[in-house]
Amino acid sequence: MVLENNIKQLRIENNQMSQQELAELVEVSRMTIYSIEVGKYTPSAALALRIAQVFSKPFEEVFYFNKGSEKK
Questions:
Q1: Hey, what domains does the chain have and what are their CATH numbers?
Q2: Cα gap 20→33, rounded to integer Å
Q3: Mean pLDDT of 22-49
């Protein structure tokens, strides 16, 4: 199972928030946000919860498991 996310869609829905703006709000680098969005990095539980809080969404609306894909 791969942990996937809706971060890019949520950023767009949130006044076209940039990766940099989100990164600053959760205190990580822009590259960390990019890596999470494209599935190259799985965030810690604390970081995932901070990201969900930025969008005022429950964790499950931001992150989800895709049982059909395998991480390589």
A1: 2-66 (1.10.260.40)
A2: 8
A3: 97
